[in-house]
Structure formats: C-alpha cells, structure tokens
Queue: 3 jobs
Job 1
Amino acid sequence: MCDDDIHQGLVHDPSVSRRAFGLMTVALTGVATVARADDTVVEKDVEIKTPDGTADAALFYPKAKGKFPAVLLWPDVMSLRPVFRDMGRRLAAAGYVVLVPNLYYRVQKAPVIQGSFNFANPEDRAKLMPMRATVTPEGTAKDAVAYIAFLDAQPQTNKAKKAGVQGYCMGGPLSFQTAAAVPGRIAAVASFHGGGLLTAKPDSPHLLLPKTKASYLIEIADNDDKQDPTVKDKLKVAFAEAKLPAQVEVFEGANHGWTVKGSQVYNEEAAERAWSNLLALYKQALG
C-alpha cells in the first residue's frame, strides 16, 4: 500500500534540476532526443473551484501554437511538490496540457511537506495521515469532474481528443475513480506503484472498471507484488471481464516509489522505461 509500511525510508525533494528531469526520454523509435522542458513549456499556478472549496494546482502546456490533449496527474501521498511539477513540465513538453493538483487543498495549500521526509519516522508519518484522511472516493469524484472541466476550458486543450489520467502511489486509485467519474472524457489511465487498486472493500477501485471506457497501464512495484502476488492476476481478470485493454506488469527489482525522483528507492532505468510506456499509452489512446 502506498500510505503504510510499504513506503521505504527517506524522501528528499529539493528543486530537481529542470534540465536533468526535463530531458526527453528515449523516443519510442529508440532514438534519444534532448530538450529543455523550460524552453518549450508554460507553467502556471492556478486555483480551481470545486464543490468542496478552492483547489490549488499547477498547470503546464506547450508554448507552441496549437491544441493538445489534456492529462490529469495525481501525485503521491506527499502531494504537489517540485518533483511532480517537473513531471508536469516533462509531459507538457511531449505535447499535452497537464494539471497537477494538491491532494489536500481542503486543509492546506501545497507544498504540504517541505524538505526531507522520513517514512520510518512516526512523527513524520503523523503529519500526513490526517491530511490523507481528507481524500475520499466521493470527494475525488467531485474533484475529477472539476479538474477535467478546468482542463477542457483551457484554450490550449484539444477537446476533440480524449483525455488521460495518471497517478502515483495513492494517485493510482484516484486515477481509476477519475475514469469512472468522467468516462466520456478519459481514454487512458496509468497507475505507477498504485496502492489499493484491488481490495475486498465495497468501494475498491477495481469495481469501477465497468463504468470506464479507457485503456490502462498498471505498473506494479516488485515489493508491492511480493506483499500480495494475487493482485496482478485478479486485476487482469477484472480488466478482461470489463472488456478493457490493459497492460499489467511487475517491475522486478523496482520498489514502491521507484518512479519518483528524490525517493530513496528511485530507480532511474526502471523509471525511464515506465515513462516510455506512459508515452506509448497516450500516443495510442489520445493521439
């Protein structure tokens, strides 16, 4: 799970080098191209009205003229912070209008954690848990509708194309909930080391799949899989029963949090492979 003992150690999230993280990943053709996301992307801090208040978020889109598909990016349990801003820039540089919201806007503006955070420290963990409790399936569904409407209202958004949603850690379930809340808009869903995608509870995210109309990319951490090796197979069955295309895979040797720069378990090689898979999904589903 993404907000309990599966998290490992220290997370240090300074302002990541924009050039380093803005480098384009190896293209799907296998040819590496280099570009600074800062040179080609507009970044704005925005506020979005929701049924529960005003959410703070970061918006990114290409400087180039034209219209682009929209993507909602749900961050991990530590919410909107520099590393996820860098992800937003990088994705926008690839040709998307990207919104990264603060998960905890109901109680605190981002960043909710500053500097280093140690999941092994009970005092650090105690800072997050009350905020984590404010994120509910019902609230997420309302937020998702508001966020997609906001993205669709941007002049840079190509509303003729479907939208995507991706999530990290607890953002994985939020991505499923988004696809169910706005099924007419979401055509691609990606989850990276998502926790709690399939549970025995009546509100398990996987039970929402029949309400959705998307293609799925489910990237599972090695230690998450070892904790419950049956989840991946049950997810595959759920996708098949819902008649939804899905790529479900375990990243061997890559532990929970491996895609997020600054994490103690960050694995650059595996993170880049996951990013390439993401771009392939969006290219196929969003155009």
Note: Confidence is low (pLDDT under 50) at residues 1-7, 14-37.
Job 2
Amino acid sequence: MNTAPATARTLADPDTPFAVVDVHKTLRNIERLATRADRLGVTLRPHVKTAKSLDVAALMHGGARCPVTVSTLAEAEAFADGGYTDITYAVGIDPHKLPRVIALLRRGVRLRVLLDSPEQARSVADAAHRAGIAIPALIEIDCDGHRGGLTTDAPALIETGRLLHRAGGLDGVLTHAGESYAAHTPEEQRLAAKNERDTAVAAAGKLRAAGLPVAVVSVGSTPTAHAAEDLTGVTELRAGNYVFFDLVMAGLGVCRIDDLALSVVVTVIGHRPEHGWIVTDGGWMAMSRDRGTAGQPQDQGYGLVTDLNGTLLGDLVMTAASQEHGTLTTRDGTTPPDLPIGTRLRILPNHACATAAQHHGYHIIDSARSGAGPAPAIEACWPRVTGW
C-alpha cells in the first residue's frame, strides 16, 4: 500500500495508484447478507479471501470474532493471531502444509481442512496419528462440475468419510457453486442455489446412511447466497465477494454499481487524441488482468471510471492496460471528456478479489460522511494479509 504521508487528508494526497474502500458501502453489503442468512436460519461464515483484512472482518458481527473461511494458511495464521478460533481452510489440502495446520490446532484454533480423495484423507489421518491430535476435515462435494470435489455417487465419498472418521476428523461436507458466476438471470441463480443445497444435503445423507457423522453442511458463493430461498438441511452459508462486490456481480444483477465498495485511484498522465485515449498511471498491476465482464452482455473492459467522489463519468471505460499504464476511452469511440494531466479518477474493478490482491492495503473513506468537497477524506489505512 502507498502509505499516506502525515499531510494526507483526502484522496487527492497519496501517490497513485492506491486502493480505496468505502466503509459505508461495505457495511451496507455486510448487513444485507447477514440479514438474509438470519432469515434462512443458517450460520454465515464469511470468506475473507476478498478483503484479507482483519479490519474489514471486524465490521461483521459488531466486531465479534465470527466463524470465517480462508483461502490460504497465511490468512488462517493472521486471523488466528487476531483472535479468530473457528476457521475453515477451503482449498484442497496439500499434505506438505499439514504441519502448519497442526500448529494452529495446538494453539486452540479449530481449523478445518478440505479434501476430495482417499489419498488426501490418508495423509490427514497419518499426520493426525503422528501428532496425536485430531484434524477436522470437510469433504468437498462437486455440485456443478466446476472445479474440485466428489460427486454424490462417487464410491470414494464413503471411503473418504470412513478414513476421516476413523481418525476422529470427519466434520462434514462443503460445496461451492462455481458455475453460478455464469448464471445471468435471477431464475438461473435461484436454480444454482437450489442445486448447491440439494447436492450438499444429498452427500451428507449418503454419509449418514453409511453410519458416518456429518455435523457441517456448508454451501455458498456470492450469487447463490443472495438467491437461495430455502436452505433446509444446510448448517452454514459462505460468501466473500459480497463485502466489496464488483462489476461481475453487478453484471449478474446481484448488486448495483452503487454497491461497489472497492476502487482504485489513478492519475491522468497523458493523452492520445488521435486515438481518443486518456492515459493513466494505473495499469494491470493496479487493477489485475481480470476481464470477467468480457463474457457478459455489457463488457466493462478493465473497469468503469468515476471522479474522486464516485460519480460515473459518462461512458468512460478503462479499455486497455499494460503493466503501469491504463487507457481510458469512451464506449462508443467518441471524444473523451477533457481531463487534464494530474486529474485523479477512481476505477471500479471487474473482480474485487483480484484487484484487492494487487495492493498491500486500503485507504478508507466513508461516503455517508463525505461532504461536497473535491475529494473524500481518508479516515484510516487498513493493511491486508498477503502471501500463502
């Protein structure tokens, strides 16, 4: 993160590019899903992989240490240091990482690992035996053919469950409707959420029918979390992107563009009028290479452009990026607005997780408190967890 100097008071002060989080919008997004989870009668286990920030996590549950999901052991270790003791590591376990898992368990952290094969289950069981400690584990279930996991009719499902149970570590099942990110209508998202629930509940039923205990039935993705109508048989709901949202989620109709809480401040450094270009100092190193909206009806390039107060600048889009340069053009190729060199802008990202990962931290603003001045005040600087 570009650390704001002592004189930095507004978004006009720090060196660009830098990441900005609007805490008002973040809180609004958090409250929206928390209310939904309460209505559905499930525990909300936020996935902290998007923000990777203890400060952002503190906005949930009134600062209480809620159950969380992580995507790296670095996140698990940082959140354990921050007092979190109920953590699910939702990436298939690599046996080489088990010593770090065991170290966290010995600290009193209930860290669940994820796996989808008897081979992994044997590795976990062997490590647990050697360490003299149970390693809680969830079996990943494939609900939509998107990535990892066992299908509900896979013979390895029961075998994996028995291996874990004998080692005292079978906690339950987990699934993720990855293909919901291509569900472009409310009905498609509702059906994805129903399939996600039905698949996880069916897998849990197969294990229970084999005499195996299943305490946890975990589902979730940001689209399905906001579309689910009935989570009977499910114990917990996971989502991560929702804290910030992004243009992909807006393109799916899961949120509005006004809900996007993350942006990147860049500065105009040049013009190429013969091409209709405005050039900024924010390239893909600031925004990431993610072009997730390219497959949607409205391609948003590398991001939409706003002024420092978050007002969209017509149809101006970041349409190209090299490492440290961003190119802004109008969507229809007409002459762009007159933005002199030195003008600061904010870019709304395609994929919040990927854009946030380009930065070491966030400059915090509050759009509910900002006045009508030329640039919002910086209220704090929050670090991110990095590494694996």
Note: The CA atoms of residues 88 and 112 lie 5 Å apart.
Job 3
Amino acid sequence: MEWAPQPGSAHDFVIGRLEVGNPRLAAPREDETRAPLSMTIHNNGDTSDTLVSVTSHRLGKAVLRILSTQLVPPKGILIPPHAAVLIEPRRPLVIFQDVSGAILADREKITLLFEKAGELTIEAIVERADSNRAHGREATGAGEIR
C-alpha cells in the first residue's frame, strides 16, 4: 500500500489504524556507512501490530535493534494498541547499515512492513549532520520487543 499523507501534515503516513509520523533519515557523514531512521508509530487500533522489516530500493534492508548493540529478535518491534512508539537512537532503532555513497536526495522512499497492517511506503526527510531532529512528545518511548 502506498503512503497517504494525513490532513494538515506532510509528514504523516497511514495504513489501517497505524500512523507513522515525522520520519527522518540521518544521512551518514563522509566516513560513515550507517543511516538511522527515526519516526513515531501511533497505533490507534484495538490490537497490537509489529514492525517486522524496513527496506529501501536505494539503501537496502535496515536492521532493527533494541539498542545500538542489540539486534531485535526476529518478530520485530511491537506497537501496542492505543499507544505511540518512538523509534530513534537510544530506543528501539531502525538503521540502514551499509549505505554506500552520499544520500543526495532531500527525501528517501522507505517501505515498512507490519505483521498485520502490511506494507506502507513512507517518505523520510533526509537530515544532514547539522540538522536537529524533532519528534512528537506524546510517544511512550520504547516499544516492547517481540
């Protein structure tokens, strides 16, 4: 399913009862090959869902991690019902590890795969090294790892 912007915001994408807000991709510095993806995932439904995988045609497959040193178990990051989970460094993390070359675009298309809701293609704003990151404060923080 392709992304659908929410009214009033160009940075929210919806699939079923899930809403992905403010996706941002940190472009790697010259000497790095890793690009973390930050976002808030809101689950407005009555049942949980799980972020299973993240891919990009240009950047390859991302790795899901609990913290920077711990891989997420195979089932993914649980998004509880009626909750928001913040995905960013020092929390559950999504990171493209083998980025070759500079990310020149201002936005990157990225596909999220949820266990129940299915596939959602989002467009993440690319942040350069000097940019500030901003996410909603309403997120509950770390999602449960499954």
Note: The longest strand covers residues 118-127.
